[in-house]
Predict the structure.
Amino acid sequence: MNEIILSNICPPVLSECGLLAAAEPFYHMDRTAGFNVLIYVTDGTIYVTEDGTDHEVREGELLFLKSGVHHYGRREIQKGTRWYYIHFCNGAGEPDCMSESCFARSFEKSAALPKKLSGLKNSRIESMIERYVDHFYSDDPMKLWSINVKLFELLAQIAVFNEAGESGLSDKICAYLRENYTKPFSASALEKEFYLSYKYMAAIFKREKNTTMQHYHASIRINHARMLLGSTLMPVSEVAAAVGYTDALYFSRVFCESVGMCPSDYRKNIFKRSVSE
């Protein structure tokens, strides 16, 4: 099936990316590329054959082509077709990879990227692809330091989206809440993101995660607050603001209910334990 394996200890490296629009009809290039290809179509249809298997990639669909495998076009792609492309080399299996390290292996996780995904129009994945390509062409002086990190984040989101499938709605909600934990919890924002009623999502989430979405959202905030209290000298009010609470007193009350002590006592306790160990 020509799968591409994504590894968290051997991250991918970008070769090239962009957004193209067909000015006239054409056939996909005949080649055996030395890099993997991500194709995401925003308008029209891309026709490409990989290793004898024909693929039609329509609006809102994504396809991966594997490095070292012959691909070409059998059907003509029409004028006006628009698509994003990302060319990248997969770090998994490279000789200089850290995979031989016992330390690295203890944290290793890998997943197969999907050959094809559908239904991505107006999704988080589509938005991430758009932002990624925009970032590549920006004048941000830090982009050369971050472009491969952002590529790994994008591919990891695609892998998680693929593994979750339609039955993994609660996992997708968890990912959304983790990404937006500093924002106030919003039922309407969730409905807009997933095109589902809040009542339906709440029932699914409660059944699969044995907690509510509001409680999960609050727990993410508190966990980040605990990290900041233990690793920085930020005042409690700044910690509260950093995790999305505009009222420091309310934050302290929520923190105390969750952890069993107020933020300042938690910080003192963390310091005492660290210096005594």
Summary: The chain is about 45% helix and 20% strand. The first helix runs from residue 102 to 106. Confidence is low (pLDDT under 50) at residues 92-99.
